[in-house]
Design a protein that fits this description.
19% helix, 9 strands, 5 helices
């Protein structure tokens, strides 16, 4: 490292402080509160239904999804009460990975990490007003206390020998699960 076929040659230099976290195998999710309204969705689609209660009752939205349901909204609604949604930091969008098993028993991807329900780890955050990504420390300070970031595998100076060593670890989320990969930041 770096090699000619590397996706990011030269991004990190020997001795530079880095954080390796576990790459969780699931489906991308984003959620947050923007201009006072709660949103949730997959990486490209907003799933929130902000129509008034009467419109939702008369014309419920049909969700067609690989998982047979809107797992993003199901997780969000079961994780945050209305009051908790209002307490999310305003104009911050969190990005994470949703994994486990859906309420109808379908696996989210093929690694459930021993979960029999939907779970989420938050790996990044974006400040809508500042138009900038959060630092790792700011992310840890701002995510709701009942959520977590992916398991940290290493914090320290970067060295190319670490890449191979770190990528061979087992998952920290469940016993007897392999780790999908690592994220270096």
């Amino acid at each position: 490292f770096p090699s000619h076929d590397s996706k990011g040659p030269g991004l990190f230099t020997a001795g530079e402080q880095v954080i390796f976290t576990e790459k969780v195998h699931g489906s991308g999710i984003r959620f947050g509160r923007v201009n006072g309204r709660s949103y949730v969705g997959s990486h490209r689609t907003t799933k929130s239904d902000h129509r008034n209660w009467f419109a939702r009752l008369l014309a419920p939205r049909k969700v067609s999804s690989y998982y047979g349901a809107d797992i993003y909204s199901e997780w969000f609604d079961s994780t945050f009460t209305s009051l908790e949604q209002k307490q999310l930091p305003n104009n911050i969008v969190f990005y994470g990975e949703i994994f486990g098993v859906t309420p109808n028993g379908k696996k989210v991807q093929d690694l459930t990490y021993g979960r029999n329900r939907l779970s989420v780890v938050v790996f990044d955050g974006y400040g809508v007003s500042s138009k900038s990504w959060l630092s790792y420390q700011d992310l840890c300070d701002l995510i709701p206390k009942h959520l977590t970031t992916p398991p940290v595998k290493y914090v320290g100076p970067f060295g190319s020998d670490l890449l191979k060593t770190m990528s061979e670890y087992d998952s920290s989320l469940a016993e007897d699960h392999l780790m999908e990969g690592i994220v270096l930041s």
